Amino acid sequence: MSIVKPASKLTPVLTDMWDRERSWNLESYRANGGYEGLEKALKMERSELVDMIKASGLRGRGGAGFPTGLKWSFLPPDDGKARYLVVNADESEPGTCKDIPTMMANPHVLIEGVAITSHAIRCEHAFIYLRGEVVHVYRRLMNAVREAREAGLIGQGVGPNGDFNLEITVHAGAGAYICGEETALLDSLEGRRGHPRLKPPFPAVAGLYARPTVVNNVESIASVPGILRNGNEWFGAMGTEKSKGHGIFSISGHVKHPGQFEAPFGITMRELIEMAGGIRDGHKLKFWTPGGSSTPIFTEEELDIPLDYESVGAAGSMLGTRALQVFDETTSVVRVIARWTEFYQHESCGKCTPCREGTYWLKQVMLRLEAGQGQPGDIDLLLDVAGNIAGKSFCALGDAAATPISSGIKRFREEFEAGLTTPARELFPYEASSVFNNKEGNR
């Protein structure tokens, strides 16, 4: 188990600007040190910049936790032709809500990160692929790109030597969870249906338009300017030995004050719940997710596990996108997992049989159990179907659908068994779980 290095409980870096006046515009961002990292980066050799990010220990913040600098280094030798950076801003995982507020409150930290990364990999045209429903964020990003271009920070022939060329395209997708998978995102960006590609080749070799491409999450790229400004030693002083730095932990559900908490990796869920005001009055924790709906669920037993990639993995789950959904004792596990299953069934792209057919059957059985109309053998059927999806589908969406079911049955089998005879609404009334009090007029 990893040990947290001495650090304050909260480390506002990306979130530091969120409460500043007009935090989203260029003037405010530059007044708070914005684009100092880019200025420093443009004076460095590209290889030196890649090595710096590798040495920093920055890991991908999109869920997998792959070392960011190492991913950049996978690009083949420069042949003088186009290579691309694509920022995955298609945040769609149930419970995940860190990238959208980051882009809304401080879009320029992402633009600066894109510029630094583009210089490091010699990219002259970068793309930000945004979930299309968040029109307000789309407009804000477009405006930030315009401001950066008019200020001479990006464009053609900018930089201290006039040799930095970068265009940034903000692309709004049509709203599909599958486009959060990097190769499905690339297909969508090219104008095709968002379906995952067979790998290899990986995007680093043949990505967007069959050219070498780096695909990184919003938070990963937005973390780069801070490293350039403050150095690797500063970044490494936060977090754990193998999970360095700061991250945004999104807490939702049955806590008094849900929200975003930027803290060093290795902080515990117990500490975060305390920061969120604790479980709502008169109730106690039942279960929680460490990384969103696609990760195995935890209970009170795991409250003191350091939230870093290694410790959470050793405990049997995944840190994922740090979407910490909290549920108290009024919540039906069957009902929650049924909603997640409906989501994954709806969002399956249908390319592979295990996911296309399996998620349909998972949904039907879960709805039966939720309604108290389960049939003998339904629980074993769920485990069988989930086992035939996990690890056998074309991409990770199948695993995401199967994981909460197998995890939920392991932890709360008695509730699934109750679904053979009793509706979840009787065992766990909806109004008991609601965080709104309709009697007081709140809706």
TrEMBL record:
Cofactor: FMN; [4Fe-4S] cluster
SMART domains membership: NADH_4Fe-4S (SM00928)
NADH-ubiquinone oxidoreductase 51kDa subunit iron-sulphur binding domain boundaries: 334-379
Matching SUPFAM superfamilies: Nqo1 FMN-binding domain-like, Nqo1 middle domain-like, Nqo1C-terminal domain-like
GO terms for MF: 4 iron, 4 sulfur cluster binding; FMN binding; metal ion binding; NAD binding; NADH dehydrogenase (ubiquinone) activity; quinone binding
Pfam families in alphabetical order: Complex1_51K (PF01512), NADH_4Fe-4S (PF10589), SLBB (PF10531)
Catalytic function, reaction form: a quinone + NADH + 5 H(+)(in) = a quinol + NAD(+) + 4 H(+)(out)
Major enzyme class: translocase
EC number: 7.1.1.-
Keywords noted in UniProt: 4Fe-4S, Flavoprotein, FMN, Iron, Iron-sulfur, Metal-binding, NAD, Quinone, Translocase
Signal sequence range: none
Coiled-coil ranges from the UniProt annotation: none
The family this protein is said to belong to: Belongs to the complex I 51 kDa subunit family.
Function description: NDH-1 shuttles electrons from NADH, via FMN and iron-sulfur (Fe-S) centers, to quinones in the respiratory chain.
Name of the protein: NADH-quinone oxidoreductase subunit F
Protein's organism: Boudabousia liubingyangii
Organism placement in taxonomy: Bacteria, Bacillati, Actinomycetota, Actinomycetes, Actinomycetales
